[in-house]
Each structure stands twice: as C-alpha cells, then as structure tokens.
Amino acid sequence: MDIVKIIQETATWIEKVNNDFETNLYRSPELNTDRHLIYIADYQHSEVMEAVAEKRTLLLNKAKVELIPINELHLYGRIMIFDVLSTVVDGAPESESKFFVDINDTPPVDTWIALGSQFAETGIYQDDSDLFNQSILAWVPASQYFYVNEALLVACVDNFSWPSPQGLGESYKFLEMLFTEPKIEEPNYPININRRIYLIEKFQKELDEESVVESFEHKSYPVSFIDKLLKMFQRGR
Prior knowledge:
The chain has one domain (3-234). It is built from eight helices and four strands. The chain has helices at residues 3-17, 21-24, 45-63, 92-96, 116-121, 145-154, 193-206, 225-234; strands at residues 77-82, 112-115, 136-141, 160-161. The two termini are 31 Å apart.
C-alpha cells in the first residue's frame, strides 16, 4: 500500500476534481461506501479504505489528472486524525464543522487516506495512543481548517487531533509539514448553511445500512458531477 501516493491522490482529488465543498460536501457518489463506517465490522475497515483508494486511483488515472507534487501538498492542506469509533453521536462536531464531519464524527469519504494501523504498518507514522490504529487519517483542505478545528474544540471525547511530526518515520521526514498543525484563521466567505443541511440529510438517506462491504467493488456508479469533471480532464480542458 503506497500511502504517500494515496496522500497525493487524495489531495489531488479534492483540489482538481471535487474542489467545491458546496457541491457534495466531499462525499462523491463514486467513492461512497454505501454504509456508515461505524456499521461496518472493525476488521473490514482496512478493506474499505483500500477500496476507496483503489477507486480514486482508477478514476484519476483514467482521466489522466496530474498529481500535485509531494513538496507542494502542504500548500493545499494537512492530515488529521479522526477516531470515529469513539464518537458519542451528540452532533456538536458535525454542527461546528459545518458538516465536514457527519453525525458519527466521520470525515467525508473523499478525504480518507488510510487507517492509523496502515500508516504504522508501512512505517510512515506511529502514535502511542491506544486508539490510533482504528482511527482514520484524512485530508483536510486549507479551506476547512477553521471548521474542522472547531469540531476538535467541542468534541467531548477528544476523538479529533492534529498529528505531531514527531511520529513520522525517519524515511518520511519530508512529509513533516503535512503532519504539523496549521495556522487557524476564520474564513470571511459566506456559507450556504441551508444547502449544506439539505446535502448532509440527502447523503445520510442514501446510506443503506443493509448493504454489505463485500458489494462495494461491484457497485455501478451513476453519471454525476464528478464524471463530468473527469471527462473535462480527458478532453484536455
């Protein structure tokens, strides 16, 4: 599992393909898992992460989207740790993040990179926390720093955290900026909160709790906004 490349692809997907949060709250139907992660057995979470990454890779390759260079990634975002299995489902982080995380404190699927255990296994990043291995390490675009940090501040079980670069393996110090807490500044642009509420409710309804993770790779995806953008890349626009 090439996690460094997955970080590149995740950031590139957000910045070049699905860069408007208001479109689908970074929850592309092409990457949808069909179920809330907390309803999927823990031992299958790594399989889900790999399936999301593989689908994203195929779509980017098909459209020949050039990846953002590794040494420029810090200009676009940071990596954050989300312990989604420790949620108390109180809705406070969801509200304060303006729906970046959902009611289950889960970041949007487009931003998923890998589990903490997958980072640890590859030697990229280690954390002494007992809950690190089950956590999602996800990409947070610069435009969402403030709102995600607000979620961190109100979370009553401390299940969000900006990682420390001290956890990086010796061979991966070049990723240091991505594992450094960013400067937090409140944005001055308006938010269409009613649209976001509509989108998050729509997304929640579309998640079928009866589906099984094994069917993920066999799902057929509808033509969507993302498909149109990818076709633009293929045409060289």
